[in-house]
Structure formats: structure tokens, C-alpha cells
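From: lab user (bench 3)
To: helpdesk
Subject: output format question, protein + nicotinamide-adenine-dinucleotide

Hello, I'm new to running complex predictions and I'm not sure whether the block I got back is the full result or only part of it. Here's what I submitted:
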Amino acid sequence: MQINEELIRSVVSQVVQEVRGGVVPPSGVVSPATDRNTASSRSSTGSGRFGQFDCADQAVAAARKAFEQLRTRPLEDRKKAIDHIRRISISQAVELGTMEMNETKIGRLEHKIEKLKTLGQRSPGTEFLSTQAYSGDRGLAVIEHAPFGVIGAITPVTHSLPTITGNAVSMIAGGNTLVVNPHPSGRLVAAEGVRRFNEAIYDDIGIDNLICVIREPTLETASAIFGHRDVALICVTGGPAVGRAALNSGKRAIVAGPGNPPVVVDETADLDRAARCILQGAAYDNNLLCIAEKEVFVVESVFDAMLAAMDRAGAVRLNRSQIDRLTDAAFHEVGQDRHLAPTKELLGQDANKLARAAGVTIESNRELLFGETAETHPFVSVEQMMPFVPFVRCRDIDHGIELAQHYEHGFRHTSIIHSRNVRNMTKMARAMDTTLFVKNGPCMAGLGLGGEGYLSFSIAGPTGEGVTTPLTFTRERRCSLIEDLWILGDPTSN
Ligand code: NAD
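Helpdesk reply: Thanks, we reran it on our side. This is the complete output you should expect:
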């Protein structure tokens, strides 16, 4: 595990605060110590309170009851609820991020913490629920955004609590409540985060169970949620299997599915900038992000120069035999069709561990490995989620785009280009047709981290909603008033 100085300072400062107790937090921020005092007095939270459930039926019933209460409340109460989620996500990011790291054992601690903090700062809220109006001779029609009711959410192991946090903010802002079936390997931090969110919300607005979580999630509990008559909408974030299951559920489903984001680098690119961006994006949380740079296609004329730029940026180059050794350790065959998938031993692990598997010793602060491979290499075709990036030579921009399109597998998720040629950017954007298309930045710039826009950890490519917001989780309702409230003329005077 790599720990930086800023992280150590942050952990030490939190511990000091907690030891001192009663430290006055900055305005608007409740200290973790204060929150935990409340939490510890309720540490024996049983099933049925603060969102903790062992049975899908009971969870849906509680979420339904919470929805009925929320729908009688002013918009201000939704704002209060999501403000608590955001606040806890920021003020307890170190503790919750550490919990997530210890439980899932994938990714990097500083990024687990950063993801929670950033969600607290950049997740979109009730301001997204803008009303549209049409007025004219025949009166006034107003279109408002109404909640669905109870939403069933399935979340991945790669960002267990962050996905729940982002989903909860958007769904509650839209007036809904939710029942979450988390990935079994991230269930403890999911339940703990949900408990803390619900406690704070209940203490403030008196409604419990806006967010319900299944404490021992299984495929059976997922399917019970999918099939429950009181679940109005499903939102799944994960790989191909859960996407298929959601689409077969007979309910409307929002599917945030898998990706395998390609990067194309052409001869006009600023190669050092491209290298820094690829390092930043591909190494983030050890390449667990679904939007992360997974394979790079570089035009022949700058291929060697691009690899040299990666060296300068601080990535570690592997030779062919080292890549072969790493590949043996990184993939195994799964399923009836015996397709390749990343091994548990290396998925989301540090570059150091991957280097050891490749037979190389590297400095502990190195974050990313890379090397040249053929286009048919498993590191190119499989969504590998580990900090090794394969670089493939291509003849020219057209060949690069063609390969990028092929190895993105039609997910239409995320693609990236480094270029100063607007024609090439346009050509690739049109060909890829991905939900996120990033030009001259690291992948996360497409989610508002270093680029413009807002953040969500559920990017719905297959079903087309894009980066999800509160509006994603609402139904349009139209209210029409005939002949009145059109104030710019009087059609009855003729
Ligand atoms: P996963 O597909 O193994 O699991 C995701 C969730 O689906 C888990 O909760 C799992 O228990 C559940 N699940 C799996 N099969 C199911 C089925 N048949 N019925 C019901 N539930 C089922 O994925 P993971 O390893 O947890 O996460 C990584 C994957 O998620 C990658 O493919 C990544 O690209 C994708 N992802 C996508 C986004 C996005 O916004 N599009 C965000 C994060 C992760």
C-alpha cells in the first residue's frame, strides 16, 4: 500500500481531533468524533433501523414507508438529507475510505478517501430539477420532475460506498428512496456508510430508512429486489452479467455497465502531457475506474518518443519477457466459454506487486507499469483493472481509431485522444460514439475532476442516461392550465 505525506497528515489530524474530543469543527462541518459519539451509542443497530436489513422484502417495505413520508415533505427536507450525506462523505472520508480499503483490499487508500471527499463536493443535487414551462394563447403547461418511488440499486466492489453515496444523493434529490444490494466483498463498508447517513438524516428530519442496505447481499436478494412490485426502477453499476440481469428483470433499468477505454495518441500530440495524463488516469486507484485508460494506440511515427515520454513521466517500462510473466499471473480462464478475466491476486493491486509478478523490483513510489504489446494481447482486449497499460503501434490515426473502436467492444463507455488536430478529434469522437470522450486530459477530467461538469460513479452507457444526475431518477409530469395564466395577450378579446 502506498501512503503519501498528505494522507498521513490527514489521518493524524483526525486521530488528534478524536483524542481531544469536543474540538469545535469548522463552520458547517460536524467532526467525525461528534458523529461517532452518536453512532457508538447506537452501535448495536439491529435489522430494520438506520437502513440495516437482512431481508429484501423488509428493506423494500421500509424504503416504501420512507418514500411515503418524504413525498409529504418540502423540497428543503431533501436538501437537508443530501447535505448530511455529502457532509459525512467529506468529514469521515479518511475513516470510511480506510474501512473500504481494508475490506475490499483493492485500489489505493488515498484515492478511496479522495473519491468520497470529491463526491461530497461535486455530486449534483436538487438544483438539477429545473422545471420547464410552455405558455401561449391556450394557457400554460408546466413540466415538473417527479420521483419514481423506491429504486433498487446494485453497486460494484470497485467503489462500494462511493457508488452508494453518489446514487443516494441523486436519488433522494429526485425525491426517491433506495434499497441497495452491494457487492458482497464491499458489504461492510456499504452498511456502515448507510447507517451513518440514515442516523444523521433521522436526527434532523425524522425520517428513517431513506437508504436501505442488504447486510448479507446475494444473487437471491438482488433478484428479490429486481422482482419486487414496490420497486419502481432499477439502477445497476457493474459488469456485463448484472447489466443483463437488470435488463431482463421486466422493470425499467438504468445500466451503468463495463468499459475498456482506449486512448489514441497521434503525431500532433504533446507527448509529455499525454504521458502525464495517462499515468494520472491509469494509475488512479490502481486502474479500478471504469473510465480509466486501459490500452493505448500510438501512431508509428511517434511511438518510440511516446514510450520515452512515459519513462520521463515516471512509469516503469517492462520488456517482452517481463510482460509475458505478468500476463501469466494477471489472467485466468473463466466461464463456460473459457474467456480470460483478471485474477483476484492482481486486480486493483499496486504497481509494486505487479512488478514482482513480472520478476522486476521497482521503487515503492512508482504507480504504473507499461510496455509494448501486440494488439491481440489480453491486456488490450480484457478490462484488466490493474496498473499496467499496454501500448500498441498503429500505422496512422485511422488505424488507431479502428483499433480503439474494436477493443472498446461496442460498450460506448469512454474513449480518450491526445492530439492537437481538431479533425482527428472529431473523427474519433464520431467513430467511438462513447458516453465520455476526453481530449488532452486524464480520464477523470471527463467526470469533472480536472475538467468541467459534475460527478457521479454511475455512468449509464448501455441505457443512454449518461453520467447520472437527480433528473435521471425522475419521471416527467405535465400540468396544463387551459386559457389562463398566459399574460402577454388576451386571445378571448377577438
Ligand atoms: P460485477 O459485475 O462483478 O458486480 C457488480 C455488482 O453486480 C455486484 O454487486 C454483484 O454482486 C452484482 N451482480 C453480478 N452479477 C449479478 C447478477 N446476475 N444478478 C444480480 N446482481 C449481480 O462488477 P465489479 O467487479 O463489482 O465492478 C467492476 C465492473 O463494474 C467493471 O466492469 C466496471 O467497468 C463496472 N463499473 C461500471 C461503472 C459505470 O459507471 N459504468 C462504474 C463502476 C464500475
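A quick orientation on your result: The pocket of nicotinamide-adenine-dinucleotide is lined by residues 154-159, 182-183, 219, 222, 237-239, 241-242, 245, 256-259, 290, 383, 457-459 (CB under 6 Å). Let us know if anything else is unclear.
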